[in-house]
Amino acid sequence: MRSSSYPAMPGASAGSARRTMRAVLVLALTAGLATAVPAAEAAAPAQPAAQVKPTAAAQPADVAAKPFMGWTSWSMQSSKYPGLNPDGDYSYLTEANVLKQADAMASKLKPYGYEYVNIDAGWWRTNDWTPEFDAYGRQTPDPDRFPRGMKAVADHIHDKGLKAGIYLPVGLEKEAYGEGKVPIWNTETCTTADIVHPDLRTTNGWDSAYKIDFSRPCAQKYIDSQAQLFADWGYDFLKLDGVGPGSFKSGENYDNVADVAAWQKAISTAGRPIHLELSWSLDIGHAADWKQYSNGWRIDTDVECYCNTLVSWENSVDDRFDDAPGWSRKAGPGGWNDLDSINVGNGQMDGLTKAERQSYVTLWAISKSPLFSGDDLTRLDDYGLSLLTNREVIAVDQGDTPVARPVTPAGDQQVWGAKNPDGSYTVALFNLADSPAAVTADWASFGFTGRAGVRDLWNHENLGTYQNKVTQALPAHGSRLFTVTPAGPPLKTTGYEAESAANTLGGNASVGGCDACSGGQKVGNLYGGGTLRFNGITVKKAGIYTVNVAYVSGDARSVAVSANGNGATSLTFPSTGDWGTAETVSVPVTLKAGANTLTFDSGSGYAPDIDKIAVPQS
After folding, report:
1. Residue 418 clears pLDDT 60, i.e. is over it
2. pLDDT exceeds 90 at position 284
3. Given the DSSP bridges, would you call strands 557-563 and 594-601 parallel, antiparallel or unpaired?
4. Whether the Cβ atoms of residue 243 and residue 206 lie closer than 8 Å to each other
5. CATH of domain 406-486
6. Cβ(350)–Cβ(376) under 8 Å?
7. Proportion of the chain above pLDDT 90, given as a percent
């Protein structure tokens, strides 16, 4: 799914120090009030105002039971890659091109679970971006792009055993307002003036629409009419774009929770199951709302680079490593964290190395993101096809494994993982550095020790038994993905609570309540020189210990960690998503035999709140 209802100014998502602001995409949009123009082909026949569709059952339970898989048009229609858009920007989007991709998906990817063919922004606009509306202010297909209309396209997709997806920006598009005189379908008196705020305040990520006022009875009727149109056309998926809070907009005008709720309500009575996906860079503070009213939500800005390839590593594939951890506990059956499309199948056109392509899919799979390609499926290279069709990797994304998150601090070398229901672990190693490096996963980070069997999922190979850890040499931006099955015992640790009276607090540091924390308390206010020193950490033998640190941090924060007053190491702890969720990362610490101290120092910045530490007994 893409963030751009229109080619927009993609912003940088919060929390990434490496974010690169994209180039502004220029588009002449009509800013004034335009009369809605009836299109030549209104895809759903008008019905008398008194005729009301029968109420259908609510969304079936299996909608978004798993992250969806498929293809989307936006990556190619937004790229400057030679030949993709021969008739001007975004001209790739046509009926002929969509159906070619549907046919290719059916023959190459359908056996692996790919099923949605999603049409993105522009299907109701000409090549110069002039919009088309029916007599009721609803978007209707541009006859040059889609000469047979949207129902014929959905029918073709369905004939291939696939599902059809479509797109809208949130709000009432300005050009559909028609001086407030456009009637609303299936009502007796409602017009566009009756569904928006009288001051015509704007909304969505581009301010391209008037904000709908859902305290007015006619407002829901308009959303109902759009949902019914899509259901009558036969669409199974809707991407609602520019949704806030998020899309780099905040404030009342950009709060679209009511819009999303209205769409869920409209879909439930339209007579057809429709997956509702939200975009883009949605506010994590409203994660409960997105979960309640939709089936998926974009957590970040567009993955496309808007350049002469589809994507680039720096803009913005690598940003997801910063932004995904905070959302890791927000997803589950019925609603998933959407990391955007996986453009890994076309080699040179993708703009990535082979190592980057594999890491891209690895992160998406362990995050249980929807897996949908933005590539030209008619021209998949052998390596790209192997990435998109690796059944063991797909099973990580589609199976009952939980969403993975980092078990080490953020940095160039990272280990992510999750414990699976069968007692095994999904373990991913990443080298995000620009040069080769070794990455080690310590079994202690996952709470066990001794021997464990390791299976390489990308290469379908059992690597044998490893003692206490596995280390792999990785290329720049490279990765490995394993299933690790413990054969040894659980790790024995000694726990030390941050709030213990035996510890020493310095500066602003103080003990506070924490429902998610061990013992119901934590040490916070670690800022501006605030420190927490654990005293009396006792081990029998000197050595390097993998200490698990439980912490709470609504955003990624750094802290300097030192043992026994020796040199400190600055580490960045990934976001736990909010200030009411505790997570754990492991930190290697050199301890001496006997009693030790371990200090967490905020320095001049803000550090995470600390719950407790668990120190291995050997």
Report:
1. yes
2. yes
3. antiparallel
4. no
5. 2.60.40.1180
6. no
7. 89
| Domain topology for 493-616 | Jelly Rolls (2.60.120)
Burial of 334 (0-12, 13-18, 19+ CB in 10 A): middle
The CA-CA-CA angle for residues 573, 371, 409, to 5°, reads 10
As beta bridge partners, residue 116 has: 70, 163
Joined tokens for residue 604: 């001049």
Residue 433 has pLDDT above 80, yes or no: yes
Q: How far is Cα 468 from Cα 482, in angstroms, rounded to an integer? A: 15
Q: Which two tokens stand for residue 459?
A: 């290469």
Class of domain 69-403: alpha beta
Question: What does the radius of gyration of the chain's CA atoms come to, in whole angstroms?
Answer: 26
Percent of the chain with pLDDT over 70: 90
Helix (H) or strand (E) holding 276: strand 275-278
Angle at 354 between CA 351 and CA 360, to 5 degrees: 75
Residue 355 corresponds to which amino acid? Answer: A
| Tokens encoding 186 | 């299936």
Q: Is 161 exposed, middle or buried (0-12, 13-18, 19+ CB in 10 A)?
A: exposed
What burial class does residue 429 get, using C-beta atoms within 10 Å of its C-beta: 0-12 exposed, 13-18 middle, 19+ buried? buried
- Token look-up 């199976």 returns 399
User: DSSP class of residue 340?
Assistant: -
Q: Give CA 440 to chain center in angstroms.
A: 27
The mean pLDDT value for 445-463 works out to 97
Q: Do 590 and 567 contact (CB within 8 A), yes or no?
A: no
CA 134 vs. chain centroid, Å, equals 33
Position 49, amino acid: A
Whose structure tokens read 């998150």? 405
Q: Summarize pLDDT for 330-352 with one digit per residue, the tens.
A: 999 999 999 999 999 999 999 99
> Where are the domains positioned within the chain?
69-403, 406-486, 493-616
Flag whether pLDDT at 12 surpasses 80: no
Kindly state the average pLDDT of the residues 371-383.
98
Residue 524's alpha-carbon distances to 144, 252, 518, 529, in angstroms, are 60, 31, 14, 12
DSSP assignments along 185-235, one per residue: TT-SS-BGGGTB-TT--EESTTS-EEPB-TTSHHHHHHHHHHHHHHHHHT-
Q: Is 2 left (phi over 0), alpha (psi -120 to 50) or beta?
A: beta
Is the pLDDT at 43 greater than 80? The verdict is: no
**Residues 395-421, mean pLDDT to the nearest whole number:** 98
